[in-house]
Amino acid sequence: REVGLTAEAGAATGENKPLLRAVSGEAVWPPPMWLMRQAGRYLPEYREVRAKAGGFIKLCTTPEMAAEVTLQPIRRYGMDGAILFSDILMVPWAMGQGLRFAEGEGPVLDPIRDAAGVAALELEKVRERAAPIFETVRLTRAALNQHANKVSLIGFAGSPFTVACYMVEGHGSKDFHTARGMAFNDPALFGRLIRTLVDATTDYLLAQAEAGAEALMLFDSWAGMLPPSQFRRWVIEPTATIVRSLKRLHPSIPIIGFPRLAGPLIGEYAQRTGVNTVAMDTAMDPRFAASAVPANVGLQGNLDPLALIAGGAALEAEARQILAAMRGRPFVFNLGHGIEKITPPENVAQLVRIVRSGG
Ligand code: CP3
Residues in domain Uroporphyrinogen decarboxylase (URO-D) (predicted)? Predict the structure, then answer.
């Protein structure tokens, strides 16, 4: 089976990729763009492949199919970034934790609540079990190189804290009481889990970089639930450790951090983790972020996915406000959280036109 793009997606050569320049700290205008969850159920062509795959994990571990859905939003919209199609929970899965995606229920894991559960995690198996995901990176990069050499391939992982939330809780939650409780009741145990995740995530991201990922993103969706002292310990410190290790081997690979709902701690996160770009959530005021985050650190975000569902004048007004606040900065236009499955695909095309006009 062939995985590819048609030539009109734009052939170019060299390292002149707008997204890589922007996430590395250069102000590019109009800003490059991509959307979190841009490959997904709002696209009929995704639903078609998803139905054939027979399960979400199967889709993530079948390289031809995963590469195909990674490329779909590039073909349809000409985004500047392609994000590897996978999931943050594939790292616990690769360490041997039971995982399934139940229809309409989200992810379900065999929860880890004690020392034996943490000790049973198979860190040394991650590269082997996740090999199909690295193959997806290779296939996608080859397809992008051949036909659309302006598109950057973004690899990703979940941040240790957010992944630990799911591993301990066993499922999605509004508050992750069990996981956050463990961080207070047994910080030594929670710390061992976080350290295991730091090691697994570093290795997993290194393998993606070796396979051809050109930028790496760390998703910390639940970071904003933590009080400041816990945020420093479980979000900033582990992220800084991962970034330091990645930069030792790949000094120039740009890293994007997404500390969702970090609020006023966004500046400290930017300064202390060493990420090249900080992704803003929907609640972040871009003007505040611009003042709190050092000028050489890029920003990404942060349109509300609901404005994208609304479309029309509401979408246009929101998008233009963000563009106005970010002009002159290293910036990548994106959503402030993942695209929703009820999003009309034509609204994404409208957003692309607005952003390409530069506001
Ligand atoms: O296009 C992309 O952005 C790349 C792929 C990607 C997925 N998940 C695919 C996916 C990425 C980067 C993620 C990240 C992810 N996964 C996060 C962090 C970002 C965020 O949204 O806060 C989290 C917390 C997860 C865990 C997860 N995966 C949940 C809670 C769910 C269920 C919710 C849902 O929308 O069904 C998933 C499933 C999932 N991951 C889907 C996709 C496209 C839907 C699966 C399907 O097709 O049935």
Answer: 32-41, 154-170
CATH number, position 302:
3.20.20.210
Is residue 3 situated within a structural domain? no
Question: Annotated catalytic, 87?
Answer: yes
Q: Which ligand 1 atom sits closest to the C-alpha of 41?
A: 47
Domain assignment present for residue 4? The answer is no
Residue 319 CA to its chain's centroid (Å): 21
Distances from the Cα of 200 to the Cαs of 108, 127, 194, in angstroms? 20, 9, 10
Measuring from atom 21 of ligand 1, which residue has the nearest CA? 338
Classify 255 as helix, strand or coil. strand
| ipTM rounded to 2 decimals | 0.94
Q: Is 37 an annotated catalytic residue?
A: yes
Does ligand 1 have an atom closer than 6 angstroms to the CB of 339?
no
Query: Across the chain, which distance is largest between two alpha carbons, in Å?
Result: 57
Atom 3 of ligand 1, nearest CA residue? 37
| Secondary structure letter of residue 36 according to DSSP | T
Give the domain range for residue 351: 14-356
Task: Tell me if 2 is assigned to some domain.
Answer: no
Show the 3-state SS of 313-337: HHHHHHHHHHHHHHCCCCEEEEECC
Which residue would you say has higher pLDDT here, 68 or 3?
68
Q: Within a domain: residue 315?
A: yes
Tell which residue, 198, 278, 287, has the closest CA to residue 240: 198
221 CA: nearest ligand 1 atom: 22
The CA distance from 210 to 138, in Å, is 9
Whether 38 lines ligand 1, by a CB cut-off of 6 Å, is: yes
Q: Which of 87, 203, 281, 304 is catalytic?
A: 87
Catalytic annotation on 166? yes
Q: Which residues are annotated as a binding site?
A: 37-41, 87, 166, 221, 337
Q: What is the pTM of this model?
A: 0.95
Residue 82 identity:
A
The yes-or-no verdict on residue 224 having pLDDT over 50 is yes
Read off the pLDDT of residues 267-319 as tens digits, 9 standing for 90 and up: 999 999 999 999 999 999 999 999 999 999 999 999 999 999 999 999 999 99
Quote the number of domains for the chain: 1
Tokens of 313: 């004048």
